[in-house]
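Researcher: Next sequence.
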Amino acid sequence: MHPRSEAPEDHEEPPGPDDPEGAAELPAVAPQLRDLRRRAGLTLEAAAARARLSPAHLSRLETGRRQPSLPLLLGLARTYGTTVSELLGETPAVADPIVRAGGPGAREADGWTYWQAGGPGRGMQALRVHVPHGRSQGELVRVHPGEEWLYVLTGRLRLHLGDTEHLLEPGDSAHFDSLTPHRIGAAEAGGAELLFVHTLLQSSLAGLCLGGATTTTHHR
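Model: Next structure:
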């Protein structure tokens, strides 16, 4: 029998249904958790492993014996490729199909800058990205479920797919399975700008292949 220390989240006991304070903060999510797991075709054990929980902990969440904290909700939403709103059973608003220039501000991750080019709550995310030259982010190799597509607007881009390096010029594009180990870097001092689309299956908005922690900066 494995020690409980292998499931770090179990050391944090989220408020139970008998905790008035915890129960008042979040509506019951048990029905949505069960439904999303079944729709994903995952066993309790497989879903728990992806969420880095013990099966017993996930079972308690699914049966309503525990209420998840907000950080745990975020992790479960990533696991099932959905949003916290759906986990809470909220009806999403109709998404505006148009993203206007001068909309959401730029965000930065380890020197990379990106702007939203698509609407939220979709099965894929579209971004306009500026890739700086010589920053550490370009050296990180990424592997994750889904697909990626990119189109070079300005500058020259180095795209490493597996053991092969590709040099992309303005107007070139690439479409690949993101389970292929990949990394992206600017090939010249001025950096490169590109359009980037990726599927959100099992992805985190804060953990894009473009970067980690993000900060909002200026509009452009």
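Model: The mean pLDDT is 75. The chain has six helices and ten strands.
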